[in-house]
Automatic annotation (TrEMBL):
The keyword ATP-binding does not apply. One of its GO terms (molecular function) is DNA strand exchange activity. This is Recombinase family protein. Residues 19-169 form the Resolvase/invertase-type recombinase catalytic domain. The active site is at S27 (o-(5'-phospho-dna)-serine intermediate). It comes from Streptomyces guryensis. Gene3D superfamilies: Putative Large Serine Recombinase, Chain B, Domain 2 (3.90.1750.20), Resolvase, N-terminal catalytic domain (3.40.50.1390). Transmembrane segments: none annotated. InterPro entries: DNA_bind_recomb_sf (IPR038109), Recombinase_CS (IPR006118), Resolv_N (IPR006119), Resolvase-like_N_sf (IPR036162), SSR_resolvase (IPR050639). PANTHER family: DNA-INVERTASE FROM LAMBDOID PROPHAGE, SERINE RECOMBINASE PINE-RELATED.
């Protein structure tokens, strides 16, 4: 870092005893192994007592990944804020192991360096060192390298296992696509996606439903409505909501939501794509880092004839591009009376342009909307441009606005606009 660091004994200038806080971070994986905060706090407490340091505080992040930086960890962020107080509230931060500092170089070093700049150092119980000495900094560099290497090894083994499961046809994990559910949940190596349809027969009632959520019923009913209404998705959503066929969250369907669920290509083709190339993390060679994309065949929700009928009914002619002059310079910049904002939304076949309040968009068909009027685009844009020109020629007004915005007096003067 280009600076000479004093020894830990000299940090608390004029103080007889170093003041220390402990930072306790345990990840979800550590908790699963039984290494919780109580386990690490005993280690740090004994260490501070052995060193003769005064324990003045504890900061704890439970179930938090070591790949997160300081500002992304709740209590570590608080620790850093406290460290900047004047007078300095502590001299040492004690952690049980180097990996508690961070699992990546960026997450590890940034807050350690920030503390060094403040004259605060980090001590590690395991291997008994701190970064106030050359030998301690050397050990810390090795700990940082080991923590990152260990993280990559764990990630590689985990991702490799998930890839192998998918290659064997098992469900690799995560949330099932709408319309399907995970069968044999909790049985290692036997989990798979099956259509989410009723399996309770006469024993399935509204009061005592069976395990499935009956999402297949919703999708099949939605397909019937989509064909009937020729792709009018608002009518499709209205019909589903009227029959009490709600979405997975138990809320009414919006036309965009049901359309995205029903017209999903993987759903229509009866497949599940693991590690789609669209979202895969690629290496320098352009290949997926954690494994190739895998397509798993599923029991189809619809027959080929039903899919073809749905595609015909919902196909729309391509819309022509908007003609010249369809530019809305104030879109999202005008606050409406209802608290929303205005956007350009004039129909393609209209001869004039307008701004429309976003509060008029239904959260779902039938939901309440605002009564804000449309605004003539040409008129409001002309007015706004006139006001801007006036403002640029009014140095005093610009000064007043700047002072109000910055909350302080602006020095210097503004030159007159030419």
């Amino acid at each position: 870092m280009g600076k000479t660091l004093t020894s830990s004994i000299d940090v608390a200038a004029g103080a007889t005893t170093l003041r220390a806080v402990d930072y306790l971070r345990v990840s979800t994986e550590d908790q699963a192994k039984g290494y919780g905060v109580a386990y690490t706090s005993k280690k740090t407490a004994r260490y501070m007592e052995r060193k003769g340091w005064e324990h003045v505080g504890t900061y704890t992040d439970e179930g938090v990944s070591g790949s997160l930086e300081a500002h992304q960890r709740g209590d570590l962020k608080r620790l850093m804020e406290d460290a900047h107080r004047d007078p300095r509230p502590f001299d040492m931060v004690v952690v049980n192991e180097g990996r508690a500092i961070g699992r990546t170089g960026r997450a590890f070093w940034r807050w350690v360096w920030d503390l060094e700049e403040l004259g605060i150092f980090v001590a590690v119980v395991k291997d008994d060192y701190d970064n106030s000495t050359a030998s301690g900094r050397s050990k810390m560099r090795k700990d940082a390298d080991y923590a990152e290497e260990e993280r990559e090894n764990i990630r590689s083994r985990t991702q490799g296992g998930i890839q192998e499961k998918a290659e064997d046809g098992g469900f690799p994990g995560g949330q099932a696509r709408y319309g399907y559910r995970i069968a044999n949940k909790g049985k290692k190596g036997e989990q798979k996606l099956v259509i989410d349809e009723c399996d309770g027969g006469e024993y399935c009632t509204r009061a005592l439903p069976c395990e499935p959520l009956h999402e297949a019923v919703v999708l099949r009913r939605a397909r019937v409505f989509a064909v009937k209404f020729r792709g009018n998705w608002r009518k499709v959503a209205l019909s589903l909501n009227a029959e009490g066929l709600l979405n997975r969250s138990g809320k009414p369907w919006s036309h965009a939501n049901i359309r995205s669920r029903l017209m999903n290509e993987d759903l229509l083709k009866g497949r599940f794509v693991f590690r789609s190339t669209k979202n895969a993390e690629l290496g320098p060679d352009g290949r997926p880092v954690w494994g190739e994309s895998i397509v798993m065949e599923l029991d189809p929700m619809f027959t080929p004839e039903e899919v073809a009928e749905l595609r015909r009914a919902t196909s729309k002619p391509a819309r022509s591009a908007a003609g010249p002059g369809r530019v809305y310079s104030l879109s999202s910049r005008i606050i409406s009376p209802c608290g929303k904002h205005y956007v350009g939304a004039t129909r393609a076949d209209a001869t004039t342009r307008h701004y429309r309040c976003t509060g008029k968009a239904e959260a779902y068909p039938g939901a309440p909307t605002c009564s804000c009027s449309q605004i003539d685009a040409g008129g409001v844009e002309t007015w706004a441009w006139t006001e801007v020109c006036k403002l640029l020629g009014d140095a005093e007004r610009l000064r007043t606005m700047a002072e109000q915005w910055m909350g302080t007096t602006v020095g210097g003067t503004f030159s007159e606009a030419g």
